[in-house]
Protein: DNA repair protein RadA
Organism: Intrasporangium chromatireducens Q5-1
Amino acid sequence: MASRSNGKRAVTGYRCTECGWSTVKWVGRCGECQAWGSVTEVGQPTARTTAAPVGEPARPIGQVDMSRASAETTGVPEFDRVLGGGLVPGAVVLVAGEPGVGKSTLLLDVAARTARSGRTVLYVSGEESAAQVRGRAERIGALADRLLLAAETDLGTVLGHVEHAGPDLLVVDSVQTIASAEVDGQAGNVSQVREVTGTLIQVAKSRGVAVLLVGHVTKDGSVAGPRVLEHLVDAVVQFEGDRHSRLRLVRAVKNRFGPTDEVGCFELRDSGIVGLADPSGLFLSRSAAPVPGTCVTVAMEGRRPLVTELQSLITASSLPSPRRTTSGLDASRLAMILAVLEKRSGLPAGTRDVFAATVGGMRVTEPAADLAILLSLASSAMDRPLARDVVALGEVGLSGELRPVPALGPRLTEAARLGFRYALVPEGQSDVTPPAGITPVAVPDVRSAVEAMGQLCGSRAAAAMEAATA
């Protein structure tokens, strides 16, 4: 008589221990990461899921306790701004960024400030020894009695530290260095990262512990590891900055407890990393006299307006194919603006070398800065400085028209606060009520904007611009 099955059936498959790629038959080389000898046999038991006892019955949504989702400050206002007010107990936040950008320094400062507020913090370092972390803590003034430090790379040992210390905040630096003995493969591969992250999320939710995970990024800027990692955590915070600049920007890519359009600004110093409540001054040059090829705009980083100076240089080229070099700007957008400037205003630029950059390491990619880029190019081509008390806002179309920009009111308010008197804006937005101290000048197209800027610069500059565009 045939035996009755118990409802489970073992399905044999093969999976790569390096990247998690699966196949129904064995192969010597992984079809995804091209690693040799990494495909091993795994059993995939399949069974129907049955109903389980309910621990807490469902209740009306209006009766749900909101106190469990209240954020607690980290002591770093710029970091709290990005998180939406602070860290929520049980939340898991992934902080990603390139090596050396300052992730560990920032989180060590956050851990120390949280510990000084009376909460227990456990800092687990998988990349550096405890002595190295202690040295950095002394340098940035991050020593605290309730800040506990452990240098571990085994997931089981980390869970043991959590069980013994009972922290309110857990910092893991980094998730790619922690490995589980229950999963095959080296630390940092897809299977290990998925297992480590899933376990830490379960601990955070069950114990009400806020968790900060440090994650490395790949060459293209995405978070290293499986894409599902970003879906598992509650928030993904991107740490950006040029290592040759002091400026660091922290922006939320995903946030279940707050907005994703906030940006925190920090300055990296020898004594640590310091939040900048008013960073606009970092993006303006300090030249005493007006210089040709510069124009100021107001860029929006999240909901924060930042006054930014754009610089351009157009010079004769000795190459058959002129150079187009950018720093902090989109190269393809610069090429489009150059074509519009030459076609609609008559300024020759196609046979010259063009260099364009932002000041202070700021990266500007929004279309609202098109007009400022165009005017800086025109100023450099004519070797005439523009007015220092004017900002330019507007998106440039291929036909030379100027299109409206979002959040014009906050941009004008920030420009007026820093002492700018005039603002070139698209004609369709002339009805926006300006703040006191600044006068909007509505211009319909590129040619009118060049002429208006010339009139604001003075009679000599206006004559030069009219002669150049005739």
